[in-house]
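Re-running the complex after MR caught last week's input typo. The corrected sequence lines follow. Everything else is unchanged.
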Amino acid sequence: MPDRRRASAVPAPPGAPIPRSLDARAVLGRVMLDSEFLRDPYPTYRALREAAPLAWSDEFFGGAWLVSRHADVELVLRDARFSAQRTGGWVMHPADEADTNCRSARSELSGFQRLFARAMIFLDAPDHTRVRQVMSAAFRPADLQRLAPRIERAVAERLAAVDSDSPFDFVSALARPLPAQVIGMLIGLDEAEADAPADVVAWSDELAQFVGAPAPSRLQALSAQTALLAMARHFDGLLTRRRAALVGGAEPRDDVIDRLVKAERDGQIRGSAELLAQCVMLLFAGHETTRHLLANGLRTLLSHPDQWRQLQRDRDLLPGAVRELLRFDSPVQYTGRRVATDLVLHDQTLRRGDLVVALIGAANRDPARHERPDEMDITRRSGSSLAFGQGPHVCIGAALTLMEAQAVFTQVLERWPDLALTPPVAAQWTGNALYRGLNGLSVQCPGPPANA
Ligand code: HEM
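Corrected-run output:
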């Protein structure tokens, strides 16, 4: 069992103390959850990297080790001594459980835990390898290329619908609805359903509130459960129809749903709960992240007008620019692992069951890996960042994301070369520590669109 109780009951880290961790606790104890940190986490990350590369924090899930240097984050993501199975304590022990009837909180959340824990992002080998193999088949370059024209059309339609004579919100016009629509195409939702049904986006937001809370409350866990089960019901109807069609001899379609249904029939996917968990996780993982890349990315580019103009002149810079936007302000700021076997890191013993938070956002600004890490530079050539993770769980949707982001930025550059942030430039951050993003991004284009 995870050691969450031990961590919250004993504020000091388990094992011998880290000499420099007091600095980190002084920093963390005060700022981890405050609005200043959520607005700009990078000074805190720097303090951690420099003063306490392995720091214990009570702020995360009742107690967790934080790692912030590139080399350590990479190790945690790649090394099998760190397990991806971490939902038990997280889902079943809300931060305010002491105030509630603990046993009833656990039983009322068991449906959530049963489904959530089966998503491949929370599986270890050999189950993870088995499920990932099935899912990978849907992300082959040829499949993604087939989607490209549909994605471009969807972007064009959304941009054309904008009334660009006055300031408009880029998040509601495009960044929020588009990724769910694209994943709908990939998964194989019907055309009507693929148009990012409002419910699916709302459920996904509800889940993100829970997943992104460093110390989720019972209420957040219950709301997330309601959303997760509603999403599962949404997919269940579709899966039933597809199973019946395949049994009736219909030709399998080239989409995720039919691949999963076929894999279930062949025994590669074990049961409908495992199947449903992958559908829900795909939708959620792809939507909450890509929307933030699009909006944070546009904001960052428009805040660096020289680089925006450079992109106008040389579109070949776009693939590198998207990767730099992912590094500079990563939509996924951290991920978690459980220590699977006692080990020593930075002279500190980490015990089996301890939770480790790998701070991707901090690793991506590590000067040991990236020169001038706090500068955004679309011509940077320092190799890939950890924005998509690394190791066995490296993002399965990375190629799709890059394709989608390039389609968006290409069309925005072409349509509105003079696009600008609407003053005041104060960003409306969502306040989610894990999924770093904006609630809204007001922009305007002086003059008519370039292709009007
Ligand atoms: C800006 C966009 C995206 C970012 C920054 C991002 C980031 C990440 C990261 C950091 C991980 C690793 C998590 C870990 O190791 O614990 C991951 C895994 C994953 N991502 Fe993404 N992602 C993005 C888009 C997408 C899209 C579009 C999809 C699906 C259509 C997707 C589906 C997944 C899935 C299913 C996993 C789990 C893979 C596994 O466990 O083997 N992601 N992503």
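None of the earlier attempt is carried over here. The two ends are 61 Å apart (CA to CA). DSSP finds 21 helices and twelve strands in the chain.
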